């Protein structure tokens, strides 16, 4: 007799229903994952890809005559309007315009126009017309490459003068200041004279450099002059072949990875943020690994099996669930103000009241993240330690090893994959965390990297930039145009890549350890 | 021919134990053979002292049987022999019973000399010696077949028993005639008859041992079958 | 009278203390409230193989753990009585447990090589003892591996991970590891229960050759194995030593009915 079942299904149907349901939800999960990746990759990748420039004719409302603009066109099929990013004489560095789709009369690729990127992160969309040099006014456009090289040479000379001659003199002068040397002391006067001489040279060179200029025209025929020294690159986007577009994109990526942000985090690169993120995670790993491992060893190997141990274990697991902002507040209140303040009054009392360690900085950020990720490491390590076969430990004891020798020589190597798992999770968590970092040291713009050539090379007290914070900042303050919004996505993409790379490295390491210690 | 390889076990001690066991059987066999030789000599030369020694020596053979039996028991208990090893142990355990019995039969013949009850007839005496020599050959062949685990040799020995049987029958008939002639001392005649019977029995014991050898190498029980069917059985197996 | 078979196994009662490697006197052991070993007194003869047999949980493994004080690792274990090795009571507080364990080697049920190379596995104990000279280590490793009849199989791959060896090889490696410290006593806790029958025979044969150098105490569930390898056998039941005799006697004519029932498979 067939048993009556819910909603009149037989056993086979019921089973396939369950299978379909589970498969359905797995599918939804997959779609969600893939769409996150695709969105981030597509929008982030678009940041690097050169946008074609169009000559767009738009019907004006008041007159019958139409207006032509050189613009990047962002055409979203779902919406009525077309978004144009254009430049004209009034707004040489670009502005945005929303126009009705119907009012666009014609759209043609502007072959002659170029995307001129400037050193300060802005860009100009225009038709390069001619090059102005001190020798002759109207040079052919083909001269541009040569002229740019010449200007680069001049810039190099100026930099050399600045760093090799002016900077030491400036330092010497400030030393005189510190020692209260009289303003008319002969040595000082000599220095000042030297300083003036070099400064004159620099000024001359700069004046010479400024004479090299590029004249460009906008769509309405108005011209605009750009000093060649300001130009980073000139790309005739319409004429680029696919390969050249790739080259442009790659050079964009390199700039993105190696340069500082410009124009309030809407342009340029994210190098300081990338560097800050990796360095913070690195310092955090150095702090959290020994702490977590030692704590886990105590809990699993030494702690007596009492209620207190159980309580400790439970609270460690619960610590993992505390909201991260709480850790941020704790870090600010305890590490920065209390601990940092005490350190300042003990070691850096000469610079007070301006704080050294008593203000948010990369070390406090790393320490806060270490506290935040400590439970993860402890739990994973304990798990790894528990997996060490009792027989191996007994074997070690039976050969005359003491407890500590057994732990160091046998238990830890075998538990190392477990420890690595904990560290991986900790790294992934710390790299993606934003909220607590904003309280204890991450800023949207830091003037200097935490590592430089100045003693003591690693400046743990400095504030730093962080990719997550940069994304947050881009998302709320800088979404003024289409391109800079995609910089946020590019930063997201980079953050994803960083987390993936860190994870993959750790997973590879773990696999190697596991292979070595478990499978042989 | 499948030999039981004694020295190929993983356990070297087990090898040594089996080897020792087999050698001890051969030692025992050699001892019994020597007893037979001595007895025949005693009969031939009416050498009572030698016969006395044979009778005493039988104790040694008895003790050997007990020791070998104990060792077999010990090996079974400790080593749990299987297959060819098990057959070897069982074979030895049974063969030594037969060998010990051979010793007893020899002792009975020797006692004929010690009690000075040898028949006066030279014909009977020399016939006894003749059968005795055949029996010695048979014993030698038997122990040899056991040592080499050679079933062909064993069957050869098996065949020899028929001759001994026929000679024994002849001698019995002759002796009965003699008894009819000289009717006094019936008791002495009976002793002679027993001794003759003992000689024949030794041959049968040899046959038994040969059957064990076939069992050892072939794993087939050939007891209580005729020579022809033994051949048949062996051929079936090969 | 002629003796055909030599027997150099003395009855237990005739063992002198000079011939004794481990002497146990009135040993009692508790795990918490549970009385695991009850008044054990026995002499384990030198350079012989002694097997301890009995049902699971009868205390035989616990007893050999007493010989290297491995029971100290377990919480709630308490004991009294004496275990005398080398003329010293190892249960005394003054005994250096590390040194004791170096002198009393132990091999466990499952092969437990450390996740290192073969070479490092054998060196483990020596390095703990502070041997650092490479040449000494090399010599000791070769010697130990030879004694464990493993040298020829692994001499070309000493630095391969020990996990690549087969089960039987691993168990021999573990034996070599114990032998590297030149122990006086080698404790084997069901050393072959995880191995196939043929490998088991190889390990047993190894024991036979090792007893020239050290005293072997083996715990086994396999009665046949106890019969095969041991010179003496002790039968335990519920923490008590029921019968202790040379194996020939115990397996042919046991004195106690309990022993007889156990070894003949009549155990209730």
From TrEMBL, chain A:
GO biological process terms held by the UniProt record: phosphate ion transmembrane transport
Coiled-coil positions: 188-215
Keyword vocabulary terms for this entry: Cell membrane, Coiled coil, Membrane, Transmembrane, Transmembrane helix, Transport
The keyword Methyltransferase is assigned to this record: no
Ranges annotated as spanning the membrane: 17-40, 270-299, 319-340, 361-380, 487-509
Main localization, broad class: membrane
Statement: the UniProt record of this protein carries the keyword Cell membrane: yes
GO MF term set: phosphate transmembrane transporter activity
Membrane topology designation: Multi-pass membrane protein
Gene Ontology CC, one term: plasma membrane
Compartments reported by the entry: Cell inner membrane; Cell membrane
Gene3D superfamilies with a match to the protein in the record: MetI-like (1.10.3720.10)
Residues in ABC transmembrane type-1 domain copies: 274-506
InterPro entries referenced in this protein's UniProt entry, alphabetically: MetI-like (IPR000515), MetI-like_sf (IPR035906), Phosphate_PstA (IPR005672)
The family this protein is said to belong to: Belongs to the binding-protein-dependent transport system permease family. CysTW subfamily.
Protein name, UniProt field: Phosphate transport system permease protein PstA
TrEMBL record, chain B:
Gene Ontology CC entries for this record: cytoplasm
Location(s) in or outside the cell: Cytoplasm
UniProt keywords, alphabetically: Cytoplasm, Phosphate transport, Transport
UniProt subunit comment: Homodimer.
Family assignment from sequence similarity: Belongs to the PhoU family.
Function comment: Plays a role in the regulation of phosphate uptake.
Protein name: Phosphate-specific transport system accessory protein PhoU
Species of origin: Alteromonas hispanica
Biological classification of the source: Bacteria, Pseudomonadati, Pseudomonadota, Gammaproteobacteria, Alteromonadales
TrEMBL record, chain C:
GO biological process annotation, one example: phosphate ion transmembrane transport
One family name in Pfam for this protein: ABC_tran
Sorted UniProt keywords: ATP-binding, Cell inner membrane, Cell membrane, Membrane, Nucleotide-binding, Phosphate transport, Translocase, Transport
SMART domains the record matches: AAA
Keyword Membrane applies: yes
CDD domains: ABC_PstB_phosphate_transporter
NCBIfam families listed in its UniProt record: 3a0107s01c2
Name used for this protein in its record: Phosphate ABC transporter ATP-binding protein
Domain ABC transporter positions: 22-263
A GO molecular-function annotation: ATP hydrolysis activity
Single GO cellular component term: membrane
PROSITE patterns documented for this protein: ABC_TRANSPORTER_1, ABC_TRANSPORTER_2
